[in-house]
Amino acid sequence: MTQIECHVCGKRLVPTVTGKYRKHNQKGQTEPCPTSGTVVPEEQDADSATSSTPSIPSTPATGATALPGASEYAENLNRIASNQAEEFRAEVGARLSQFSQPARDPDAGEQIRLFSQPAAFKAPKVDVRPMTDLGLEITARLKEMFHGYSNRQERSQQKALGPSEIGSPCDRRLAMSLMRLPRVNPGGDGWASFVGTCVHVGLAEMFTWADAGSGRYAVEVPLTFYSPFVPRGTADLLDRVLFMIDDHKLMGKWSRNKLKSSGPSPTYRVQAHTYAYGARKRGERIEHVAIIGWPRDESSLEDLYVWTEPYNPKVALDALARVDALAERLKGCTETLGLHNDGCSCPSDAEKAMALPFNNSDCRYCPFYMPGAQASGNGMCNGKS
Predict the structure, then answer these.
(1) Which domain holds residue 73?
(2) pLDDT tens across 284-293, in order?
(3) Do 316 and 227 sit in the same domain of this protein?
(4) Which range, 150-154, 170-174, 349-353, is most confident?
């Protein structure tokens, strides 16, 4: 290979195929030479062509000793390297987001960030006008009226478990329900439940209209399960064309996303299969169950989601058997749960329930949940002990 002499430090070295000085230290020193990476002067390049060793310059060699085709070879190398570099830059650029930072020049010192992520959006504060005295009075009366209406048939008065309860993964909650212990957690003011009831009524009217006397749809179907602890229930919808039990659920966005990603909760799944089991006992043909996630917080049905699976009687039978086993374990001095003879020494109902394992994955709406309690007991559960 042809060597040239650096015109600054005098060190001899082989130039690059593009006609530049290679990176090198000054002759006899450890400091880099300032000519590193710079273009070799034309006069020096021409001089090097007269060397006894052939060269591969980036421009056509003028000396008689240059190899034939060396210039074309160098140009091809340059072109290939340039094309590959452009393809690589295009590939990398296609993967960059609109907020990616430009390439950083290591020799440019501190650089200003040209792009940044947008700041978190904060909803503007609404200038709320205070209610008048009359408006405040009407508000108080409406709330009082609603609470009185919604509590007239409170579920705490029901005497037996229903299919909507037996799928709970918490044995303690089921035991307290079986014992009919007083409920300590109202689960909100009842508005969400009221809205759900209103939607159920409207859906029942819609499917009755859609049935048009054909017999395809049956709404609010009464069912019997032949269990002393879960005697009966009411299915939302029976579809005799698809052979399916449908259960309506009015869901917020978080619950719908959970239904989409991981399916229904054990409570919802057991409820649907238990309804299907009761419908089979009634003589209906059932092949599938469905949970319909109606959007509670949307202005359209764009996000309506329906989960289905084949009917499996084992799901319902296992749930009913679990209730029977819990009831047997909780029997006291009498055959009636929750009652004791005067002076009996058996553990109290609450003590029996507290001895059972608990599951705190869904405490919020548990009727026996008391989050502020220091310890569970006396018919209350803090979800921790």
Answers:
(1) 4-88
(2) 999 999 999 9
(3) yes
(4) 170-174
